[in-house]
TrEMBL record:
This is Pilus assembly protein CpaB. Residues 49-141 form the SAF domain. InterPro entries: Pilus_assmbl_Flp-typ_CpaB, RcpC_dom, SAF. Coiled coil: none annotated. It comes from the Bacteria.
Amino acid sequence: MNAVRLIILLVAITASIGLAVVVRGVVVGKKPSTAAAAPMVTPASKPMAQVLVAKRDLPVGARLTPADVDWQAWPADSLNSAFITDGAPPAAPETGAKGAVDKAKKTASTLFGGAAMQQVVGAIVKEPILANEPMTLRKLVRSGEGNYMAVVVQPGMRAMSVSVTVDTGAGGFILPGDRVDVILATQVEGGRGFTSSTVLKNIRVLAIDQASEPDKDAKTMVGAVATLEIATGDTEVLTSAQAAAKTQGLLVLALRSYADAGAASGRVAQGPVEDTSTVRVFRNGQSSEVTVTR
């Protein structure tokens, strides 16, 4: 072997060794280092609070019952100070969404009769509330609070008050929510007696004095004033009847049956008063009665 071939062979061997070293270094450098690997961190679950929400769309004038509201898990960092909560400190969900729902139901069952629920049950909605919207006291009004009567009165109706006594108010058995007829009794011209007529029928009673609800288990309410819900076009009828009662008569409220709640409501058509009498007529030995109108 001559010198040239020997040099070429040595160069080839050296290049092969160098290439092998370079390739090994690249491969080893790509292997992950156990010491440098960062451990995986599971993000912490957000604390959740229990917020009272509407179960359905609630229109203006709706009186709330326990079936209208429910507890719902709500992110603590999204709470508003106006929301009604169960008062417990926010806590992490037990096991995902299902755990939060289960916890909400558990909380609702334990707090159903608590102070938080009592804030809204029985109140009247004065601004529309959407389903699943958090309840706020700003959109509710309770008996005795400002604007209560204006919320209770139905659209197109008016609230008017009449004086009542035990005698003219069905012995005190008329309660808020009942239906009554308004009867006017006036003295006949010349003082020969009294005549009476129903001026309004099937009228809803809104309150007795300032109480819009009877006390628990109360069967009677004795007051000096009854507030009635009157159609806009009938307010003049009641005003005229009150004026007539003050000068020469009496205004009486007659309690109606609950079975009549769906009957027509409002003024009663008044026809001309006719003075009638019965006359017995004898003709050809036969007698008969004839009604004569004057």
